[in-house]
Design brief:
alpha/beta; 262 residues; 6-stranded mixed sheet; Rossmann fold
Length: 262
């Protein structure tokens, strides 16, 4: 008897979302978006500013109410995944509480839900390379170190889906490169599904199994590019023909939007 394949981490069909303006008009942010992220798959979303990438992520997270279309998360609706502590979220701003030290910030989800394994906090601090700063408050840390804390906090409940919204966008280039490699290493260990929003083509290609390219507003899926790089991955692969080919394909899909608008 064969076992059934695992449910997709994300399954979105026809997602459409409008923001209401103060003048009574509406802004169409997403228009008929289809998206699927398999169990344990790393998928990045790239596109021009204002194309609805963050809106898409918030709909998947259940932070915005669904208006039209359907979004399934881990076989149910986003709210069910939230209640099961199956979602982890990392935003561009780490959102750490300044009066709590690093360890207490990572432990915060466990304190709120009174569920999970407190012993995992120390293991995660070591995993993301921040254990020696466990007693420091966020104000004493660099931007890259704060994002390591935010990543550890997002993983503390052992989520099955990690949502990341431009998590490295505010970092300097050296810190950003270090965090990319750190995320790759952690993903290899955890093997959870990741939906990753970024403006960086190189970042998307290095990290992902597939890259979803969005159009300008209203956001639609223009192309889905497979990344045929072997894993585990590292900086050396950025010079490989497969990396260059995938990056060229993503950039071509992004540029085709400019041609359409011309």
């Amino acid at each position: 008897m064969t076992s059934s394949p695992p449910l997709p981490a994300v399954s979105a069909r026809g997602l459409t979302y409008r923001y209401a303006g103060a003048d009574g008009r509406t802004l169409l942010a997403l228009d008929g978006v289809d998206l699927e992220v398999g169990a344990g798959e790393f998928v990045s979303v790239v596109g021009p500013s204002g194309c609805g990438k963050s809106t898409l992520l918030r709909l998947v997270a259940g932070l915005l109410p669904s208006q039209a279309g359907e979004v399934g998360v881990l076989g149910g609706i986003p709210a069910e995944a939230q209640r099961a502590h199956a979602l982890g979220l990392v935003a561009q701003e780490p959102g750490l509480l300044p009066w709590r030290d690093v360890e207490a910030n990572v432990r915060l989800p466990l304190d709120v839900t009174r569920a999970g394994d407190p012993a995992r906090v120390q293991a995660l601090l070591e995993q993301v390379g921040i254990a020696e700063f466990a007693g420091y408050r966020p104000g004493a840390l660099s931007g890259g170190m704060r994002q390591r804390v935010a990543l550890a906090r997002a993983l503390v409940h052992r989520p099955r889906l990690l949502l990341m919204d431009e998590p490295f966008g505010a970092l300097d280039e050296l810190s950003r490169e270090a965090m990319r490699l750190e995320l790759l290493r952690i993903w290899e260990q955890e093997r959870i599904a990741v939906l990753f929003v970024t403006h960086s083509v190189a970042e998307a290609v290095l990290l992902s199994d597939r890259v979803v390219v969005m159009t300008g507003r209203p956001g639609r899926v223009r192309a889905v590019i497979d990344v045929p790089l072997s894993r585990p991955r590292g900086e050396a692969q950025e010079a490989s023909p497969a990396f260059v080919e995938a990056a060229v394909a993503v950039r071509a899909a992004l540029r085709s939007g400019d041609e359409d608008a011309a």
